[in-house]
Amino acid sequence: MKKLAICAMILFGSLAVNANSGNDVIIVKEIPAKTICIKNGMANDVNTFFSNATSLFFEVYKPGTKADLVAMIDKLKAVDGVENASAGTINGDYYAITLTLKTKKDKAWFAKAFAAAGLEYIKINNNEIVEVAKL
Predict the structure, then answer these.
(1) Is 12 within a domain?
(2) Which of 10, 59, 121, 126 is the one with CA 20 to 30 A from 68?
(3) 52 found inside a domain
(4) Residue 28 and residue 54: Cα distance in Å, rounded?
(5) CATH code at position 118
Protein backbone atom coordinates (compact mmCIF):
# COMPACT_ATOMS: atom_id res chain seq x y z
CA MET A 1 0.00 0.00 0.00
CA LYS A 2 2.85 2.37 0.84
CA LYS A 3 4.48 1.60 -2.49
CA LEU A 4 1.25 2.38 -4.31
CA ALA A 5 0.90 5.70 -2.47
CA ILE A 6 4.50 6.65 -3.26
CA CYS A 7 4.06 5.75 -6.94
CA ALA A 8 0.87 7.83 -7.09
CA MET A 9 2.66 10.82 -5.51
CA ILE A 10 5.50 10.58 -8.02
CA LEU A 11 3.08 10.26 -10.93
CA PHE A 12 0.90 13.20 -9.88
CA GLY A 13 3.94 15.29 -8.95
CA SER A 14 5.48 14.85 -12.39
CA LEU A 15 2.16 15.72 -14.03
CA ALA A 16 1.97 18.92 -12.01
CA VAL A 17 5.51 19.88 -12.97
CA ASN A 18 4.86 19.16 -16.65
CA ALA A 19 1.58 21.09 -16.59
CA ASN A 20 3.26 24.18 -15.14
CA SER A 21 6.37 24.11 -17.33
CA GLY A 22 4.41 25.21 -20.42
CA ASN A 23 3.44 28.48 -18.71
CA ASP A 24 6.95 29.75 -18.01
CA VAL A 25 7.73 32.86 -20.02
CA ILE A 26 11.21 34.24 -20.45
CA ILE A 27 11.44 37.83 -21.61
CA VAL A 28 14.72 39.03 -23.08
CA LYS A 29 15.08 42.73 -23.78
CA GLU A 30 17.83 43.95 -26.07
CA ILE A 31 19.90 46.72 -24.55
CA PRO A 32 19.89 49.74 -26.87
CA ALA A 33 23.24 50.91 -28.22
CA LYS A 34 24.91 53.73 -26.28
CA THR A 35 23.26 52.71 -23.00
CA ILE A 36 25.01 53.69 -19.77
CA CYS A 37 25.40 50.71 -17.44
CA ILE A 38 26.17 51.33 -13.78
CA LYS A 39 26.88 48.38 -11.49
CA ASN A 40 27.20 49.71 -7.97
CA GLY A 41 25.30 48.71 -4.85
CA MET A 42 25.17 52.34 -3.73
CA ALA A 43 23.35 53.32 -6.95
CA ASN A 44 20.03 51.81 -5.84
CA ASP A 45 19.17 55.25 -4.43
CA VAL A 46 19.96 57.37 -7.51
CA ASN A 47 19.44 60.71 -5.76
CA THR A 48 22.02 59.99 -3.08
CA PHE A 49 24.36 58.15 -5.43
CA PHE A 50 24.68 60.93 -7.98
CA SER A 51 24.69 63.78 -5.45
CA ASN A 52 27.63 62.24 -3.56
CA ALA A 53 29.76 61.32 -6.58
CA THR A 54 32.81 63.27 -7.66
CA SER A 55 34.15 60.30 -9.58
CA LEU A 56 31.89 57.99 -11.55
CA PHE A 57 32.82 54.71 -13.22
CA PHE A 58 30.34 53.40 -15.76
CA GLU A 59 30.22 51.36 -18.94
CA VAL A 60 28.62 52.19 -22.26
CA TYR A 61 27.06 49.35 -24.20
CA LYS A 62 27.96 49.43 -27.91
CA PRO A 63 29.12 53.05 -28.15
CA GLY A 64 29.84 52.68 -31.88
CA THR A 65 33.23 53.05 -33.52
CA LYS A 66 36.39 54.10 -31.73
CA ALA A 67 35.89 57.58 -33.22
CA ASP A 68 32.36 57.64 -31.74
CA LEU A 69 33.77 56.72 -28.32
CA VAL A 70 36.45 59.43 -28.53
CA ALA A 71 33.81 61.99 -29.57
CA MET A 72 31.60 60.91 -26.65
CA ILE A 73 34.47 61.35 -24.18
CA ASP A 74 35.37 64.74 -25.69
CA LYS A 75 31.75 65.87 -25.27
CA LEU A 76 31.81 64.76 -21.63
CA LYS A 77 35.07 66.66 -21.07
CA ALA A 78 33.45 69.80 -22.52
CA VAL A 79 30.58 69.78 -19.99
CA ASP A 80 30.96 72.50 -17.37
CA GLY A 81 32.02 70.97 -14.06
CA VAL A 82 33.90 68.00 -15.53
CA GLU A 83 37.53 67.77 -14.52
CA ASN A 84 38.32 64.74 -16.69
CA ALA A 85 36.73 61.92 -18.67
CA SER A 86 38.75 58.94 -19.78
CA ALA A 87 38.22 55.61 -21.50
CA GLY A 88 39.01 52.46 -19.59
CA THR A 89 38.97 48.80 -20.47
CA ILE A 90 36.82 47.06 -23.05
CA ASN A 91 34.78 44.08 -21.90
CA GLY A 92 33.01 42.62 -24.93
CA ASP A 93 30.50 45.23 -26.10
CA TYR A 94 30.94 47.29 -22.91
CA TYR A 95 33.40 50.21 -22.85
CA ALA A 96 34.42 51.61 -19.48
CA ILE A 97 34.51 55.36 -18.86
CA THR A 98 35.62 57.21 -15.75
CA LEU A 99 34.16 60.66 -15.21
CA THR A 100 35.83 62.94 -12.64
CA LEU A 101 34.05 66.09 -11.49
CA LYS A 102 35.38 69.31 -9.97
CA THR A 103 32.58 69.33 -7.35
CA LYS A 104 29.58 67.21 -6.44
CA LYS A 105 26.53 67.50 -8.74
CA ASP A 106 22.94 66.23 -8.62
CA LYS A 107 21.28 63.64 -10.83
CA ALA A 108 19.75 66.33 -13.09
CA TRP A 109 23.26 67.55 -13.90
CA PHE A 110 24.34 63.99 -14.75
CA ALA A 111 21.29 63.55 -16.99
CA LYS A 112 22.21 66.72 -18.92
CA ALA A 113 25.86 65.69 -19.17
CA PHE A 114 24.98 62.23 -20.45
CA ALA A 115 22.52 63.68 -22.97
CA ALA A 116 25.16 66.16 -24.18
CA ALA A 117 27.43 63.19 -24.94
CA GLY A 118 24.70 61.46 -26.96
CA LEU A 119 23.83 58.87 -24.32
CA GLU A 120 20.07 58.33 -24.26
CA TYR A 121 19.50 55.35 -21.95
CA ILE A 122 20.72 54.19 -18.55
CA LYS A 123 20.59 50.85 -16.76
CA ILE A 124 21.45 50.83 -13.08
CA ASN A 125 22.18 47.43 -11.52
CA ASN A 126 19.33 45.03 -12.35
CA ASN A 127 16.71 47.74 -12.78
CA GLU A 128 14.85 48.44 -16.01
CA ILE A 129 16.47 50.51 -18.72
CA VAL A 130 15.18 54.09 -18.60
CA GLU A 131 15.72 57.18 -20.71
CA VAL A 132 18.42 59.46 -19.34
CA ALA A 133 15.93 62.35 -19.44
CA LYS A 134 13.72 60.42 -16.97
CA LEU A 135 16.56 59.74 -14.57
Answers:
(1) no
(2) 126
(3) yes
(4) 34
(5) 3.30.70.60
The average pLDDT across 115-120 equals 96
Domain assignment present for residue 85? The answer is yes
Alpha-helical runs (H) found in 33-101: 46-52, 66-78
Residues of 70-97 as b/e, b for ≥16 C-beta within 10 angstroms? eebbebbeebeebeebebeeeeeebbeb
How many structural domains is the chain composed of? 1
Q: What CA–CA distance (Å, rounded) separates 13 from 26?
A: 23
- Residues 41-61 pLDDT 10s: 999 999 999 999 999 999 999
Q: Domain range spanning residue 59?
A: 35-134
| 86 is a domain residue | yes
Q: What is residue 117's predicted lDDT score, i.e. its pLDDT?
A: 97
pLDDT digits (tens, 9 = 90+) for 15-38: 444 445 556 666 667 899 999 999
Its pTM surpasses 0.85: no
Mean pLDDT of the chain: 87
